[in-house]
Amino acid sequence: MKESHLQMMIIIVAGVFGSLLWLLEGIIPFFQNRQGRLKHALPNLAVAALNTFLSASLSVATLTILTHIQPYWQGLKGLGLNEVFESVLLVLCYDFWMYIWHRLNHQSVFLWRFHRFHHADALMDVTTGVRFHPIEIMLSEVARLPVCAVLGIGATEILLYSLLSFPIILLHHSNIALPYALEKGLAYIIPTPTLHRVHHSVRKEEADTNYGSMLSLWDRLFGSLRQQSALQPLRLGIEET
Question: Membrane-spanning residues where (predicted)?
Answer without folding.
Answer: 6-24, 45-69, 84-101, 147-170
